[in-house]
Amino acid sequence: MNTPTDTAAVRRHNVALVLREIAAHGPCARTEVAAATGLVHASVTALAADLIGRGLVAEVGSMSSGGRGRPRRLLRLVPGRVVAIALQVTLERVEVMAADLAGAVAHRASVPHRAPFGDPEPLAEVLAREIERAEAVVRARPDAHLARVVIAMAGPVTGAGHTVAAAIDFGWSRTDLRALVLAHLPDLACPLDVVNDANVAALAEYHARADRGGELPCAAAYIKADTGVGGGLVVDGRMHTGTHGMAGEVGHIPLAFDGPDCPCGARGCLAMYVGPEPLTAAAGLADLAARDGVDAALAELDRRLRAGDPRATDALAVAGRSVGAAVLAISGLVDPGEVILGGYLATWVAWLTPGIDAVLAGRRAVAPHLEPTIAQGILGPDATLHGALRTSREATLDDAATVPPLDRTTPPA
Q1: Over the stretch 375-406, which tens digit does the pLDDT of each residue have?
Q2: Which of 68, 79, 164, 303 stands the most exposed, by the fewest C-beta atoms within 10 Å?
Q3: Cis (ω within 30 of 0) for the bond into 27?
Q4: How many domains does the chain have?
Q5: Would you give the DSSP letter of residue 404?
Q6: Residue 70 sits in which domain range?
Q7: How do strand 57-63 and strand 229-235 relate by DSSP bridges?
């Protein structure tokens, strides 16, 4: 255990302990950090000095030590020191957000991409252009370090290669989206990750409950519908993606062997009942979707639901029963304590609930104590962006050495 690699790993672990404690509970004194982390006071002092040198932590005032000793200096996180850029790809647009460690937004944009079906290169060009624009905003902020760019994309993503295994809604097979984007950004000086949009949305929604003081289950499932139908699993506070990045892909749980053909190769998948195209078509809005786009059709469906249109409410009733069937399937395999609905499933939960309840009624009558809580997502359409930014924040807190020391020789702007 005395090799340099092991020593470096131990130090990285200890720095992470100190930084996370300050981020969660600061301003706090070094003695409080030592007590909370189990590290000796001298180690905390040295590690805090390193974090101060990197601009991640600052001393802010002091508090009495309660005796004759010197007052204790308080430490707090400097969230603006690190900024990340998140991009979410929807069927029609690229949503962009740059934010610091506290979630303060430095840049926001929403642009149409008009990417052709089956060809990822034009979309890669749009993503690269928007990254450059966001990066320019970050670079203009004094002392801000661009930590990471995270692209959230529909479809399973392999963790090692950042490869989109299949993007059915975009007509892609196995695609190294990261490489395509980086080909347009030869000077990008930070890591670029590609993640599944629903997985990071699941992570964000799960932790949003903790931020509000809610009690979290050890496992939670997430079902969302917007660009398509996807989902995610969070186990012990972390995303669980499985062997091939497929864990949580609830949109392709087959509900009916004789159901409509799904582009994934199966039949009767959940996506074929609650996805944007099938759902708007069931509500009589297929022509509008073809003419003006799926976003316009979903907006009209929302208007009709609130007006009590029978065809719209019938479409949501069928969708609710489909979601209920998916909840039963997920429960039997994963046993989540909570199933969170996101995207327009959260927006329209009032119209979905009767159908969900109808499907769950039989199981509820037999074993109500085994039923997961059905919860409405609280982050709205920005859940994916917040989740992508959270992955960057976690990476920074895990390895503060990725943030360079501040250059104190240059006067502040």
Answers
A1: 999 998 899 999 999 999 999 999 999 999 99
A2: 68
A3: yes
A4: 3
A5: P
A6: 4-77
A7: unpaired
